């Protein structure tokens, strides 16, 4: 008998096959992830294209402008009332020693026009003129008052009173 070679039974090595299978599975997973990401990107582009066509920014600006218009016009009467009361207090504080005879306030959208009539103080006419000039300076110093100036009318000259007109910015 011919000598039979006795070969030890060799185990098959399975690790190369396992590595190949793992690499194939990993490749399939990465390919699937790439396909899903591409689909998400395509959907995002479609949504953006639709969003740009709808112009939501213009609609938002329009709604915001409408909100501020409504807010301005609903709050305007109260704003005018508070500003007029504040102006009346400030003018009453600036008037002494003159007598505050009349105050008329004409509201506008952004300012208040006013006409104030002050009576002469008791005493000489020359002292009255100095006090009227001092009142005009105090009137111009009131916060927010601009264009304050005397307005002579024929009725004022007869009664000895003086009319002042001006405007006040609304706060």
Distance from first to last alpha carbon: 122 Å
Shape: rod-shaped
Proportion of residues in β-strands: 15-25%
CATH class of one domain: Alpha Beta
H-E string: HHEEHEHE
Largest sheet: 4 strands, antiparallel
Integer average pLDDT: 84
Task: Please tell me about this protein's structure.
- It contains four helices and four strands, in the order H-H-E-E-H-E-H-E.
- The chain is α+β, with helices and mostly antiparallel strands and 171 residues long.
- The chain has a domain of 93 residues: 2-Layer Sandwich (Gyrase A, domain 2).
- A four-stranded antiparallel beta sheet has the order 1-2-4-3.
- Strand 1 and strand 2 form a beta hairpin.
- The radius of gyration is 44 Å and the shape is rod-shaped.
- The mean pLDDT is 84.
Give a brief outline of the structure.
The protein is 60% helix and 19% strand. The protein is of the alpha+beta class and 171 residues long. It is rod-shaped, with a radius of gyration of 44 Å.
Secondary structure topology:
Blueprint: H1 15-54, H2 56-94, E1 99-107, E2 111-119, H3 125-141, E3 145-150, H4 154-159, E4 162-169
Antiparallel strand pairs: 1-2, 2-4, 3-4
Task: Kindly list the characteristics that best describe this protein.
alpha+beta; single chain; Gyrase A, domain 2; 171 residues; 4-stranded antiparallel sheet
